[in-house]
Amino acid sequence: MAVGAALLTILLSVAAVLGSDYSAVPPNKAQLHSWFNQNVRPVNERKSTLDPALVAAEQGRRVITVRKDGTGNFKRITDAINSVPSNNNKRVIIKIGPGEYREKITIDRTKRFVTLYGNPNAKPTLSYGGTAEQYGTVDSGTLIALADYFVAANLIIKNTAPKPDGKRKGAQASALRISGDKSAVYNCRILGFQDTICDDRGYHFFKDCYIEGTVDFIFGSGTSIYLNTELHVVQDSGIEVITAQARQSNDNTGYSFLHCAVTGTGSNTFLGRAWMSRPKVVYIYTNMGNAINPQGWSDNFHPERDSTVFYGEYKNSGSGANMVKRVKYSKELTYDQAKPYMTLGFIKGSSWLLPPPNV
Question: Which residues does UniProt assign to the signal peptide (predicted)?
């Protein structure tokens, strides 16, 4: 009996771990809050399933402050980041006071476990006007997070460069680049035009965000979930494109948009374009407004990519979600086809994803 009870305990523990990764997002948006709390529990409740390095980092966390008026530890965000030691192994929360910080900010690969945190009721603004002409597209970002286990919460991140007019060379301008693995962004406004977010590589999670742009305003090779996030299309003179996911092989990278909203004006926005040969993008339980072109997707004038893209939709709503005129190479998914993209298992969340910080 004792052996049987012990085995049952083990099986239940395994089920709990799997459940944290493989419980599908509910179709009812009103249940999202409870679903998230059940699946993304605090570190002290999940020590056995989390990366050991993450558990150790969270147990030794410290907070430093940045305030423009000089009442914090630093006046500039860059100075606070510079104070984090190379090969950092403890969570450092940089609590940023209100106001606008005009800085081009980079978190080096050696500075893991950095959190940039703003007051949700007085979000600080991180702004800079870097362009592709000056820095190259991926290095033009106002905030570039190269390190693993990065977290951003309650921030406004924007690139202030002018909207590209189709004439100026290198006018693309990113607001945010995330190149570190196991990184999360909570309750942030991310503002730009072309190439707003370089969702570069690694497992990433965005929740309760607002992302604004014109063309390819989410691009890169990340493996990412966007949950309850507004994708706001700024009307351009030509076409608008939300995603340019850069998958080129049969790997598992891709973007999953769950319970999001596509807003904006115009009627010529594509959900994604085949910038590279094998992009993977799915929209699930997402409300799509009038801005969406009825065809939905673009092969980027490469018809040979029609057979290699993975563009899927499941149970979306709104006038832009009508599948009748969709391109033939897009997929109206079944539940079983959609489910792998409806769970935190898509980003291996049980090993690293934690609730938003509370400082």
Answer: 1-19
